[in-house]
Write a structure and sequence with these properties.
Layout lengths: L7 H13 L6 H12 L16 H6 L12 H18 L4 H12 L12 H13 L6 H13 L13 H9 L4 H19 L8 H14 L1
Helix pairs in contact: 1-4, 4-5, 4-6, 6-7, 6-8, 8-10, 9-10
Amino acid sequence: MIIHHNSLSMTLDAVNEALFNGRSLSKVENKETVRWIAGRQVEVGKQAGLFAPTEDDYQQGVRLFTGERLRTKLAARNILTAEAARALLLFDIGGDILERTNRWLLGQCFASACTVGECAHSTIGLMRYLAVGGLADSEKRANAHIAVLSQHRDGQGRWRRFPFYYTLLALCETDLPAAVEEMRYAAPACERFLRRSPRDELFAPRQRAVVERVLARC
């Protein structure tokens, strides 16, 4: 099932899983999914362009595709908006819907690679959107975000403040030399992950798949 009517998060998770695994949606699934996601967009007011989480999303909490939990409503709202825009773009939807979202995204602090609190997570969410050409200057912005990421290396193959597996996911989707350099830096931590028993049985298969993709790019 792709559409979870009570949850934008779960709907986007199902979409991302299909895209990650190379599974095409049927024409009916595609049409219905696009309509449902687009229906979550705020069209007027200060939040025009945002894709609104549901009440269940806020009550049950949101986890990133790679399993990391989001602790703040702000990060949930930011990342779900970037993920929704990414999904619609990959479904060949643009026009007014994405123009509104792009204006909203460019007004947020993480558009300039903010690293305060979970805005760091939002920065990575935007990187995934940049990787599919979501903004006119996507490549320039992506390089700038990766440069900020590199400044937060912890010396052990990870990054301070940034969610590890979600960051790896964004990097392996980004076809830029700077992204490859960050993946090479992360390779030792990825290799350590493959040697240990998974801590999160639910998301471990996705984390393993991401780690393997990263190592294949190094």
